[in-house]
Amino acid sequence: MIIAKETVTLIHTDTKIHGLPETELYESLSDDEKTRAGRIHAASERQNFIVRRGILRSLLGTTFGIEPFRIRFAATPVGKPFVAFPGNSGIFFNLSHSGNDIVYAFSGHPETGIDIERIRTLEDIDELARNYFSAEEYAILMNQPGWKKNNAFIRIWSLKEALIKASGWPLEQGLAAFDVAAYCQMNRFELPFGDIHTFTCIAPVFDYICGFATALAIRLDRNEPLNIKRYSLQGGQFFEL
Q1: What is the DSSP string of 126-186?
Q2: Which segments constitute the 4'-phosphopantetheinyl transferase domain (predicted)?
Q3: How many domains does the chain fold into?
Q4: Which residues fall within 8 angstroms of residue 80, CB to CB, at 6 or more apart?
Q5: Among 15, 42, 194, 197, which one is most buried in terms of CB atoms within 10 A?
């Protein structure tokens, strides 16, 4: 499987079923990543870090035709990572993880964001929504029956996270910048941003993953179609969905 600029490639896996040799994934990491891994005390969290970074490098190395350890990453001033070497590759990426599950997005557009959130019970859900949601989003949440409130909150949060990551805005500004109240029940919508930009949003992007909310946000060129390919990585094999 080769990632192409003309396609939005979405990949889901988890650290228990990916099936790639973890020794090779570790050896593909940069010295800085190996140091970061060594500082993680919990074995499961350390393994998750190695796997998600190693898979990212493996995918990009295959695409660029170079050894994965040669890839170098940098970050924008607000911390959004991008490929620094090889330069001018035209491939941009974003990833998200929740527990053992990992999702990746690759495209020819720098403004691409993906998010995955495990649906779980949140004790402070009202306070979080009051602090980070618009008045309209908060009203939608408060009108949900108690048993639906967590699902609704995490779906809205996942959409907003994907939009923040696509736009490159800082978290504290981005949550307020995007209001998805009018769209949060839609599987796909166009969200205006500023005077001239529009983000295309899809949620869920992996509807087979039970117990999780997933969302994609991307800013396409004018009149450009959204060409998505979805894959599940299991046992070292990519299965197109």
Answers
A1: HHHHHHHS-HHHHHHHHTS-HHHHHHHHHHHHHHHHHHHHHHT--HHHHHHH---TTTTT-
A2: 113-179
A3: 2
A4: 94, 165, 168
A5: 15
From first to last of its 241 residues, the chain has per-residue pLDDT tens of 679 999 999 999 999 999 999 999 999 999 999 999 999 999 999 999 999 999 999 999 999 999 999 999 999 888 889 999 998 899 999 999 999 999 999 999 999 999 999 998 888 899 999 888 999 999 999 999 877 899 999 999 999 999 999 988 766 666 767 899 999 889 999 998 766 789 999 999 999 999 999 999 999 988 899 999 999 999 999 999 9
Sign of dihedral through CA atoms 59, 63, 68, 74? negative
Calpha distance 62→219 (Å, rounded): 26
Answer whether residue 213 is part of any domain. Answer: no
- Give yes or no: residues 241 and 189 share one domain: no
Same structural domain, 97 and 168: no
